[in-house]
Amino acid sequence: MGKKVRKEPETPSKETFDPLSIESKKAATVILMLSSTEEEVLAKACEAILRYAEKGDENKSSLVGLGVMEPLCHLLSHGDSLVSRNAVMALGVMASNNDVKGVLKKMDIIPSVISKLSPDGDVVVHEFATLCLAALSTEFTNKIRICDNNGLDPLINLLSSPDPDVQKNSLECIYNLVQDLPNCTAVCRLHGIPPLLHLLHSEFPVIQQLVLCTLERVTSDAEARSALRGEQGFHQLLELLSSREHSDLHAEALRVISNCLEDAGSLPFLQESGKLDQLLQFLASPASPEVLNAAAKAVSRMARSGENRKLLHEHDVESALVNLLATDNDHVRATACQAMTGMSENDASKDKFRQLDVIRAIVPLLANESGELREAAAQTLSRLTNGSPPNSQAVYEAEGVGPLVHLLQDPRSGAMAHAAAVLANMAAQEPLRRSILARFGMRCLVGPLQAADAHTLTSAALAVSALACDADGRKEFRNAGGLAPLVKLLSSKDSEIRRNACWAVRVCANDEPTATEMYKLGALEILQDINMSANSRNRFSEAAFQQLLDSNLSVKYSLGGQLTSSDITGDGFYDPGQARPGQRVLPLEDLARQHVNQHRPVIAVNGKPDYLISTESSDNKLQDVPSPSCSSTVLNKSGVRSPSKVRSKVRREEDRRKDKDESGPQPDTSGVKPWTQQCDADLHGLVLEASRTVSPLRDERDRCATLANPLYLSTGSCAVPCGVTDYVP
Question: How confident is the model at residue 217 (pLDDT cuts 50, 70, 90)?
Fold first, then answer.
């Protein structure tokens, strides 16, 4: 054996550096360390940034200002697992800051974060990667980026993670994503319903609530509801309602159940399982407002089906809903009204609500401070009074007319629309209609006729047609300026608005002053255009057009060239000549203001002297004088002067007014002098003479023969077949 030789120690390399422990209290220094090539330095720098960011939002913003985001995001894909993990942790903590979100959006970091969600990845990496995505998914464009990069699938897989933080973060991100309806379908397609239902049994209430909130949104999709029932999810939700231990989850569970109740087979299942009574008991229980509101909403959803309404009526749901009106929570009362609205589609429920005196309880809600409650109460009354005169009478007896008319000026368009609908329903009864008019209901409808909401316009036009069958109502509406917005609605592109407006015009045109005003506003031309269109024409537009002509015989004669035996002309009738196609017939006042030209004269009729008009309006001692007519009928009036005396009286009155005008002060010529049609005294005398001569005759043939005698009708130097007329240039 040879002798052992002692080994000399190796000389240290000159290129290596002794281990150095670096400590820094400056964030900028740590950020510089993120550019190091040593894994240990990088890992410690990321860890230091994590701790600094956890201290508050200001620290996160300051890190952004120092330029930390770019090097930190670059380290997500680092080959060293510790460096990559620490970078993800730092990024997950910082992502809740708005400044950080803005930078990450520009850097398009989402694909790199999603890549960290692989099933075999580190649980810590899963926790902070999902935390980052949960923060980013609150913004719409980030949702799109997550879905475009197939981020929903790994998030659903992570619902089965053993770590509750990973479950919670993944749930938050999924909840944000399903706010967009297409993602609800995607969750169902990716088999997300089973893991969601599994998490209902989590020991953490925050996870259970997140699951229910996510299911509430997901089950807005019919396919998802079907998948939920297939996984016995409906049954699990009902079991959750039976547990007092989970009373804090009842409101959320009821919201999911209410979505499921939109499907036809859900309510029969509730009845067969005995759970329907349990569900309805929530309406009468001393529960929280959230639970009561959710239960009422569930009833509202069920009441969308006719079969469901019958079933609910058999379970006396009306009484439970009426009890909710006694609560002091406006949101609960509003939802209860919405449920009553749905149930009121059933006639038996309408009667039951009236028996429970619900209308007297609803009317005060029309003046509530809550706009939501006012609108819901008005909607319920509109449904209760639709086709139900007893319910309309009940609204009147509950002194509901005043609040309803006031609601026509409500800032909420829905409240205006429903109030107008109630008034339209009530106006079918004359005493109720008079009560509405007495409270200036017609005047208050002018505002809703100019609303931007289609529902409001439809209801307002319908209310006008219901109230305009009264002469006082038409006059009030005309004086309030309601005709212009009504005529404007005839040009609406909405067929229902146009149809209701046509019917309102048809009713309003029952008197000549209103029809004349609408003609001036161009209603006749608009209706002509509507009736020429195969798509727009309807029986209402045709009826409105005909009624406008029937109430404006001068225009009717000019357009058609003839009148029927039922068209009785009177004072104010004029013949402007045959109108050409598309030509507008000018009002008599406009024609009278034109200069004399080469065209044929316009023949106008006015046989009532001014002094008779003023006398009638002041003391009503003289009875109406018959107006000239194209028919052979002349009304007999008592106390009539002879033609000669009348003519002399007319001339004396004209001479007296002329002398007064010449001797009195000159009129103000600065303004436009109001136009009045001149009276034809000879025509007036002729009518009086005809009345005196024809009235004693009993036989109608004798009356007609006497009136048709040319010698009898001759007066002065002018003989015409239908009476003496004025010639207006």
Answer: very high
- In whole angstroms, give the CA distance from residue 15 to residue 301: 78
Residue 199 buriedness (CB in 10 A; 0-12 / 13-18 / 19+): buried
User: What's the token pair of residue 509?
Assistant: 């045109």
Please name which of 273, 336, 342 lies closest in space to residue 301, comparing C-alpha atoms.
342
Asked if 112 contacts 99 with a C-beta cutoff of 8 angstroms, the reply is no
Which amino acid, 16? Answer: T
Coil, strand or helix: which one is 671? Answer: coil
Contacts of 413 (CB under 8 A, 6+ apart): 451, 452, 453, 455, 456
- DSSP element (H, E) containing 93: helix 81-94
Decide the pairing of beta strands 726-728 and 574-575.
Answer: unpaired
d(CA 303, CA 305): 5
**What whole-number percentage of the chain has pLDDT above 70?**
84
Dihedral of CA atoms 564, 566, 570, 573 in degrees, nearest 10, equals -30
- 115: number of CA atoms within 13 Å, CB side? 11
Range 486-496 average pLDDT: 94
Residue 207: the pLDDT is 95
Contact indicator for 362, 377 with CB cutoff of 8 Å: yes
**Mean pLDDT lowest among 80-84, 189-193, 602-606, 690-694:** 602-606
Strand order in the sheet with 602-604: 574-575, 602-604, 726-728
Please tell me the distance from the alpha carbon of residue 254 to that of residue 282, in angstroms, as a whole number: 10
The Cβ of residue 475 has, within 10 Å, a number of other Cβ atoms equal to 16
Backbone angles phi, psi at 726, to 5 degrees: -85, 155
Provide the residue type at 522 as one letter: G
pTM (predicted TM-score): 0.73
Reported for 531-539, long-range contacts at CB under 8 A and 24+ positions apart, including other chains, are: 536/495, 536/498, 538/499, 538/502
- From residue 311, alpha-carbon distances to 260, 271, 426 in Å are 17, 9, 30
Q: What is the pLDDT of residues 301-338, one digit of tens each?
A: 888 888 888 888 988 899 989 989 988 899 999 999 99
Residue 108 in tokens: 């398009």
163: tokens are 């770590």
Q: Inform me whether the pLDDT recorded for 38 exceeds 90.
A: no
Residue predicted with more confidence, 132 or 512: 132
Q: How many CB atoms lie within 10 A of CB 203?
A: 7
Q: Residue 715 above 60 pLDDT?
A: no
Q: DSSP string of 321-344?
A: HHHHTTSS-HHHHHHHHHHHHHHT
Residues 42-80 have pLDDT tens digits of: 888 888 888 888 888 898 898 888 888 888 888 888 888
For 639-657, how does the pLDDT look when each residue is reduced to its tens digit (9 = 90+)? 333 334 444 444 455 555 5
Residue 108 identity (one-letter amino acid): D
Domains and CATH numbers, the chain: 482-551 (1.25.10.10), 567-656+676-729 (no CATH)
Which of 585, 583, 603, 569 shows the shortest CA–CA distance to 678?
A: 603
CA atoms of 593 and 595, how far apart (whole Å): 7
Q: What gap in Å lies between CA 371 and CA 357, rounded to an integer?
A: 23
Q: Side chain identity at 370, as an amino acid letter?
A: S
CB of 224 within 8 A of CB of 260? no
Report yes or no: 129 and 92 within 8 Å, Cβ to Cβ. Answer: yes
Angle between helices 413-426 and 371-385 (to 10 degrees): 30
